[in-house]
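Continuing from the previous page...

OK, I double-checked the sequence for U3 snoRNP protein against my notes and this is the correct one:
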Amino acid sequence: MVEKRKSSNQTNNVSSTSFKKKKEEIEDTILSMGDDDDYLDDGEDNGSEDESGSENFEDYVDDGDEELDDSEAVVGTPLSQKMADIEDEDEERENVNLRVKKGVDSLEKTAAPTTEEMQEYNETAQLFNSNLFRLQVIEFFKEIKINYTKTTSLESALFQLKSIFDSIQPHQVKSNQCSNQVKIFGDQTITVTKPSSVDLVGSYMLKSTIKSNPNVDVSVEIPSSIVGEEDIYEYKYFTKRNIYLWALAKEVAKNERFSDIEFQNWNGDSNKQMFIIRPKADPKTGAITRFQIRVFISLDKNFVPLSKLSPISFNLSKTSVEDQKKKKNLQQSTTQDTLFTLNDQDLLQDQIDPLDLKFGNPNNSKNLLKFNQIKRSSYYNNSILEDMMYFEHMELLHDRIKNAPVLIDAIQLIKSWLIVKKVSTINSFQLSMLVAYLYDQGKVNKNMSSYQIFRMVLVSIVEKFVSVNRDAKPCGPMFFKASGSQAPVFGLHYSSFRRLYPMALIDASGYLNITSRVTSWALEELAQEARKSLVLLDSGDGFDEIFLQQGSPSLRYDYLLSIPLKGCQLEMPSKDYYSQELYCSHYIYRLLCATLTNRIRSITVVQDQLEGWAVDQPRPDAFANRTIHCGIELDINQWQRLIDKGPSGDHVDSDAFQAKWGKLSQLRRFKDGTIVHAVVWNPPGGRRHMIIEMIAKYILSTRLSIQSDSVSANISMFDRILQAPTMTFDAQALIVAKETIITAVDQLDLPLKINGYYPIGPALRYTSVEVVNDPQYINNQPIEILLQFENNPNWSSDIKTIELLKTAFMLKIARELEQYQPRLSTQQYVDVQYQGFLFRLIPYYPRELDFLGSEHQDVRQAILLHQNGLQHHSFIQTLANQQPAFSTATRLAQRWCYSNLFSDDISIETIELLMASIFKSTSTPPPTTPILGFIKFLRLISTYEWSERPLIVDYQQDISLSDTQSIQEIFDNQKKANNLPLFFIATHKDRASIWFKSLNSRDTHVRDRLIKCAKQSFASLNQLNLTDQLDMNAIFNTPQLDFDLKIMLNANFITNFNGSINNLLIEKKENEKENEKTKEQENSQTTVNGNEKTAVVKTLLSKYSNFNSKSKSTNAATTKKEIIVGHNLIKLFVDRLRSDPSLSCHCQFYYDKIGGDAIHVVFNPKSWTPLAFRPLRSVMALPIDATNSSNLVIPNLYEIIAHITDLGGKLINQVKLNPSSTILKSFDFK
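Thanks. Re-ran it with the corrected sequence; updated structure tokens here:
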């Protein structure tokens, strides 16, 4: 809605003498509300500012200097009195130390809390659930409120705009002059004159505008000489309205200050336009504003009797009374129109074709109307009423705010919430009117705080529009109390509004539905977002998720489908009130619902905001450059099924089913004996996740002639990675192999019985990317299984004896399992091979912990890891069985961590816990697709406050509030002791987050870098436009500029080299070229280019004689048979580098353990600070100058490289320096 405001000195001139007396009374009341000074312009202060030499006046919308009104205080206290009390309190605080202290009785030292303080305490405990949340809300108000005393440039722009409108001279405009810029329905010629009135309306006048949406709305009343009552028929009013708007825009655009002007559709309705002005600086003062001015066309309320615009009046064509009577039945059937209706939900259960869906009396076939035959006169009438009620709606809101000023703060909270949630077809004006309705109904009152009102609005939305099973449910119309002489009997058209709209909020006129454009899918989305926010509010946490974190379709839906409309052949009904864009959205929505049937739980058409167009540019085509995005929530059990069954061959719907699916439909006999028409889907490569995309492509191409190749889905973005051997393996084959090994061991004649076989390897819970089915067992990592021996008196209490007994058992097992090619690497385990999988059998005696002393810390830690791993494996495996997407999402997250070089910094157990927190969240449903799980994983890492609060994973929903408080205390104690893990993730069994603490890095820089990478990857994925090719390298490849040194490795010794991220992402041709280069390197001696700055090894060798060149002369052409089965040589090499004291103090090492061909080195900046020479610093030290006159040394880069190459030997192909390294540049290493 548009809004109206007066300045302290001149605003009375904005509407000139045309303003009505009632309007002046409202404005005067608004200006007198609360603290008067806060509503006034700084007009009189301008002179003093000019005298002081300030030339840069600005309307800083995001000015943070404005004092925040205490929205949580008792509403009955006048605002001016509140401000005075605050000033007195501030003065008392400032002078407290200047007073002479007197003896005070102990009972008088602490004053009793005031009523307001008691209210704050109660709200903190009962409403906010945490003092932090309350403080966040208070600070949030300071960030969103506008300083209305700093609007100099805006005020001058409004006066100048008013003068332009008043100076318009009468002139004729024909419809053909503007038919390209605005919507024209027929030939018309009007005489343009100055407006009857120019008003400011809406939230700016009500002082509820927020900084994130700085709009000022101007209502321009079209003169009665241009339009009359007869223009309500046959679109005449809409044509004249749009012509008049175009004429006004052309006049305004002539002014240089208003040259930044464009047309936009009014609330997404392409039948009505408005224009937007972004004023430039004031030519006199240079003041600028960040507000934008929106100009609407309005009508006088008495333009036409309101009864003629009732929801059952037919005004699409002018007919005689006799014709109207003849069409009485048609009018009644019109009220059955469900274009926007609740019946959309029925499509989720019934296989109904959108063109065959009929409405009316099912017992009377003559009264049934097809979807594209229904005349929507009710929407036509509602659109005219919208232009008549601007001021009446502002008056209604003003009256409620006058009685309860706290509503302003509540509305601002709701606006801020709606902006970040981005619910299509729902705007802040509609929710503001909903607040007013709840106030009239007594659901909210002036004694409530803004937080209470905000929460009550969310509760009302959930109660009205969400059923017990969390699906959307219909809601009856909501009526404001009717007022005015033309108002109908209260609830007269109740049944009509109920049938016509999914949401009906009827204003005081009794005829206008304020929420007429709200779609069924938007209403469902609004209700679900409200429910999620209530869960977060009740938890006392989640302020950022409620008010700050921008909503995104990629985070909200399991499946995103992008449908470019270029070439779309959708036939629009003639002579009917359709917004072409919205009609197309509804058609596609219904088409997909009827086609996908029970594969989905819901579909949302994510409305793309159509951009505006310049006043001299043609109106954009509805189809040419538009893409519709559909967000789909999938049914976890049905979405990947291969068969769509239809009716039997002799059924009445058989022909319709065949016509729908064409050649895809075939008669098939099923195991239950039925013979029916069916469609069988055969996705390429068995990728069932593509079935929905295949169905959508087929039906859109056959019905709308949309090219199937242009339709895309986000779930296919990661196919190159998800379908790689490291991401997929035959789980059934793995289970069979595991059971075979267990059976073989169980049948052995061992002195002691094995009580249990407990898998603890992530591959057996389907989350590992390190396990592949490799017949050569070279690229496969071992799958760990614990063999728990029975308690027996024969066991000794001596640790050495226990270790010897365990070794003897392992030798016995190895000898007995010769057919499985066992390898007894140490006394700790034995590796056996079967069917391409490598299993590691680990002896486990539970009572061993009781006999360990302080000198056996390593053994204790290993046993505890096994015990904790058992419980963790049970939790994760159960979750993986319950949620099919969990395992693949975890593997994708693990692959992302490894490819970004965090292989040894974050354990697979920690990644599983992070993903488990997403799938066990109570505020959002678990993801159905791996893509959604992965995107939420990145968002969790990048946005969670890891240094401030623990992450709690409640597996069984049994962690109470006291448990949460206890976990928080543990977290705080660890933080004080500087002993926090990489990520503090607490579970019911591991409240201190210590189970896997030793497996993760403790370096905060690693966590910071992990968060940085997650933010970059999330930003790349968090985009709606899926038609563009996603750059996977930006997600899975770390920028090389972050590293100082790069150690290139010999591919012969790299485990699972074919699974490297580069090999998965590059195109086939590029892959072939890369393989040729690799072969050349394998068949020749290691090459180092001494001429390049970045390949310095051989260039440096001649300078230092302590470099062992023997290792580099060895031929690198080594077969992979030399790799030890079950060991990653690169990992062993990195562990050796990290454990070397001469390197660990200077360098940090990062690598990708899945096929990574390089080790990246980061220098420690502190170790490169020049220090005075000491004998202890003589190792790997280099003088900073040739004469060493300064006696300062730094680490010797050349010796460091030589030492690394010595340790690596034939594992290393080449060493490169990063030319952009800050450290290397500062010391001029070449």
